[in-house]
Amino acid sequence: MPIEIESPEGLGYEKIECNLSESSFMDQKLSDLGFDPENLVLFYGDHKGKKELREHIASEHGLNLDQVLVTPGAATALFIVSTTLLEKGSPLLVARPNYATNLETPRLIGAEISYIELKFENRFELDIEFLTKKIEKKNCLVSLTYPHNPTGVTLKPEQLFRIVELIEKNNCILLIDETYREMSFEERPPPAASLSDRIISISSMSKSFGLPGIRIGWIICKNKYWMESFLAAKEQICITNSVIDEEIALHYLRNKQALFNPVLERIKRNFNLLTEFMNGQKCLDWVPPGGGCVSFPRVREPEKFDMDRFHEILLNDYATYIGKGSWFEMDSRYMRIGYGWEQPQKLSKGLENILKALDRSRID
């Protein structure tokens, strides 16, 4: 999946005025955090992650520090889980559309993959009955992401509890990426890994907190054997994390209320702006997100537009960038619009540019 070669950093940020392709809050500066690393000793850190950082993460999830493994970002955490638990022929049930790592790594391993197709017509809702039929007596790994990327759809607590029952009844494993959990607009389910020793939760400092540059994520799981295996895999990949990154993450989490509240306020303000835009136009249709900072609209009448020309005009003539549907193995009528990155004025301009580019890409 050619996501990275089409990433905004790959294209060059200087070409983009309105960046609506990002799936995270705007990148933060060290000066925003009030963090001073001057006296930090640059040593090999704890292979599991800094003890105080693991203790802080564990306390927020009602777990203990040995049930937390800190990794260089959520992407590495997902890679560790897949390469540890899957082998050629392993049954995997994964939701689609999805973040590329959840699809590409299992494919490379040769896992036997079945897909839970999340469909626009069903408001991208997870079909629990379909899930029930697919996992029965299969001992498979089930891979989900909630709040969902790219749609922003969320799981209700009662849905999560039902899934946990299915996982335990069928002796399966649930891998759930909860990177956007802090950004849920509605009632948040409890951390999934706190509910069962057959559940693995993944999260990071990147998306909700706007700190992708420190590359800090984590795996949370109550299964001691799996956690030892994940640690062994991490040690083969990178041994330990950057101690600077870990210190910044710990500083942020210790001051999360003061640092994160402004983030939530802007996300909600931008979401309201996006909702007003979507309600006021007729070219696009969407399922309103229930959390996160991304949405996944689609063109109402795709046969009337040249979508390749649309993306070309949008970037080259209007310096506006969005995520293509092809990034998520969806057809070209879909687009991911991130609404957490830009300030409200730039977001509004970018949204209007989308309509202008669509108008210019109409097929006569």
Structure explained in plain terms:
With 364 residues, this protein is of the alpha/beta class. It folds into two domains: 4-23 and 257-360, Aspartate Aminotransferase, domain 1, CATH 3.90.1150.10; 36-254, Type I PLP-dependent aspartate aminotransferase-like (Major domain) (Aspartate Aminotransferase, domain 2, 3-Layer(aba) Sandwich), CATH 3.40.640. Helix content is 38%, strand content 15%. It has twelve helices and 14 strands. The protein has a seven-stranded mixed β-sheet, sandwiched between helices. α4 runs parallel beside α5. The longest helix is centred in the last third of the chain and has 24 residues, at 256-279. The radius of gyration is 20 Å and the shape is globular.
